[in-house]
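As agreed, record passed on underneath.
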Amino acid sequence: MSKSFDVVVIGAGPGGYVAAIRCTQLGLHTVCIDDWKGAQGKPSLGGTCLNVGCIPSKALLESSENFERLTHDFAAHGICADNASVDVLKMVARKNKIVSDFTLGISQLFKKNKVDSLHGRAQILGRDGDVWRVGITDGEEVRAKHIIVATGSTSRILQQAPLDGVQIVDNVGALSFSETPKRLAIIGAGVIGLELGSVWRRLGAEVTLLEASPAFLPAADEQVAKEALRAFTKQKLAIHLGVQIDGVIQSAEAVKINWRDIHGAAQELVADKLIVAVGRVPNTQGLSVEAVGLKLDAAGRIEVDEQCRTSLPHVYAVGDVVRGPMLAHKASEEGVMVAELIAGQVGGSDLNLVPNVMYTAPEIAWVGKTEQQLKAVGVAYKAGQFPFLANGRARALGDTTGFIKIIADANTDRILGVHIIGPMASELIQQAVLAMAFSASSDDLARTIHAHPSLSEAMHEAALAVDKRTIHI
């Protein structure tokens, strides 16, 4: 006999587990079904983000940055450490412990909030009246009036470079190297490629990134992308744009990548390890989307409206499996919105206010429109920026690369976009998100008192710069 619930959530990543918890907070009897297996094949909640994405990658980024500071930056502070070394296995073990703690934490949150949890792959079987039937791989079946699909995304496959999990890996394998490769090649110079490349470059690898796009970080502001490319090149990340991969040849000793540069000239790259980081694709496998009539768009994402309703009654979808940026925080907010809508409340999520962050060094973050986007649609704007080089706290930190740029409507002064490259950009961007959420003008931000000395003063000065009234440059 199948169990009945108010809501079935499929997927326990940031979209799914947050939706499930919010549903139970609102009095909805909820079950969350997930098929992720972690260490030793044990069920592990949290999806890609907690298991092999956001959290573990940031753990390794922090470890590698600490090593970089110790070996290159601390001498300027009068702190010297000779013959510093890295224990990669210990570093990876620390990362694994953080992952284990967080995934266990979600299990505890489920217990606290009375969310039922089932392990297995879910399949939408059909509808009996107003009730949906959902099957699980072990033959169990559950029923509910509402379904929230939060199945996330998977790594895009590159046919020219099939993964073997040892020499050729995706982001999952790149988080668990047992030692630093001497020569590391990465196909893809997006967020994943740059973050992972930065980790292993700091630990001693010679890193080369091969990117298909002729433009570097095309989604970012052009000035930010230009500054980032200059900074990464200075760090000795070799980045090639407009690349075509012809093929990959493996031997016992190395991986050889045959590629063509932006001019079509044949090139060859030999590496000890190859990371394939060419983006991610929505995960709808096994859901029976065709059988139940769940509509997908041309990119294979589940079609949804502004409130994440799908083509099927009482079926919602959130996160990477739908339109919009593939970001954990976007998925979580959509999960909250859907839970509140199911409970009869007013819910909303504004895709224009989703902050984008890259945890490289320097960090990169932005929210809203870029200058190139505004130019393309003919919106009149004004912009101001301020360099971290002129910020006292950045000088004290010894981290002065980059700037903050604020773009505002030329007529109303309402902030349209904020773009940051520099220290703690991931934290500073939240001030911009909050300002935009309340339709603030650049003058509102310029007239807000900011603590001194702080990195946030650069945001203040950038707001002043919109009307050409900066104080400190």
